[in-house]
Amino acid sequence: MFVLVSNPGSNSRKYSLFHQDKEILSFFFDPNGGIPYCAVTDTTGKERLFHGKYCEMENSGNALQHILKEIDPSLEVDMILIRIVATGDYFVEDHIVDDECIRMLERDGARTPLHAPITLHEINTLRNAFPDVKIALISDSKFHASRPDVSKYYGFSLEFADAHQIKRYGAHGLSNESVVQQLKRIGMLPDKLVVCHIGSGVSVTAIKNGRSVETTMGYTPLEGVLMATRCGDIDPSAVFALKRAKGFSDEEMEKWLNQECGLLGIAGSNDFRDIDVGRFSDVYSAFAYEKFIYRIQQEVGKMSASMGGVDALVLTATISERNYKFRKDLVFGLGFLGFCIEDGKNESYHYSHGVANIAGPGSKAVFVIRTNETEVMLEHAKMLL
């Protein structure tokens, strides 16, 4: 069975082709820099570039069809999976795409215009290219459905929240589920775990006995920690003041908070590598670095409080997995919770290692784990069939 997994972003398109649960090809569409192209990588790491008009990101479905036929004319995709981040009770579950699913996405697009439309466009382009193939939406919020109501609701009428489905749904659920699965496999899943997913998007989650009990992202991924381009938590009155000061419409205000704030807004770059290098010579980069770590440390404390303590810490996603200096600086401020790291273990960890405990002597466990959201998506898909 050949399964195509889609990971649509606002500025790129990434796909993976799996056969019998093993990735055999990965695809990356780059919209920047002149002639559109798609980079295809096989299991040996060999890369092949496809150029031309049909490689345009906005028409990636047809491009995939052309490229797959060129690679192997006999290859037929059996199922397509798309990770879905959307508001509403409906999207807390996984779904095979049908007319009802499309209606729900269109409704969500009207409420949160920056998120659902990308998924809706992806469905349409893949449907056109692969009309006879089932498409499944795999929820990035499902893992957080186990949280208690005190975590899900905001401070207004519960009846209104239910009627209009304005609640804290959370995200990065697939990443957190991957972490739990990997720790279970090696028999090291603690009772009380805090997971820090730190990449372009950032969330901190409290996991008790393998189940989510609290998380930082809310109605949309904008809530919570300062991120690459998202501002994170902000007083709504400050939003209204900003809207008036900038003369923004509602849509412009939402876009600005999601795409032009965070590290980008403070230091002028949304690439953490630029911040990390620039902090030694640029005051804004230095402040962005300090603010970023400060907010994550705050949320680790809050997540620990929600469980009445913490037994272990997990650092996952791109920044956590690849930057040992960042890990050191982050954990240094968490000594009050019983965490410290051993420099040698920390500096020698490579993201290809999978799971590693970099804790120092006498410390609670500090795991660095390479998250594998796709593995979890494939497992979810099997339950839909």
What descriptive keywords fit this protein?
alpha/beta; Nucleotidyltransferase, domain 5; six-stranded mixed β-sheet; 15 helices; 21% strand; globular
Question: Percent of residues in beta strands?
Answer: 15-25%
* Domains, number: 2
Low-confidence stretches: none
CATH C-level class of the largest domain: Alpha Beta
For the terminal residues, how far apart are their CA atoms?
A: 12 Å
Task: Describe this protein's structure.
With 385 residues, the protein is of the alpha/beta class. It folds into two domains: 2-139, ATPase, nucleotide binding domain (Nucleotidyltransferase, domain 5); 187-373, 2-Layer Sandwich (Nucleotidyltransferase, domain 5). The protein is built from 15 helices and 14 strands. It has helices at residues 60-71, 99-111, 116-129, 149-152, 158-164, 173-185, 236-246, 250-259, 262-267, 272-278, 283-307, 318-322, 324-332, 343-348, 373-384; strands spanning 2-8, 13-19, 22-30, 37-42, 47-51, 79-84, 95-96, 134-139, 192-198, 202-208, 211-215, 312-316, 355-357, 365-369. The chain has an eight-stranded mixed sheet with strand order 5-4-3-2-1-6-8-7, with helices on both faces. A six-stranded mixed sheet has the order 11-10-9-12-14-13, sandwiched between helices. Strand 1 and strand 2 (13-19) form a beta hairpin. It is globular and about 60 Å long. The two termini are 12 Å apart. The mean pLDDT is 93.
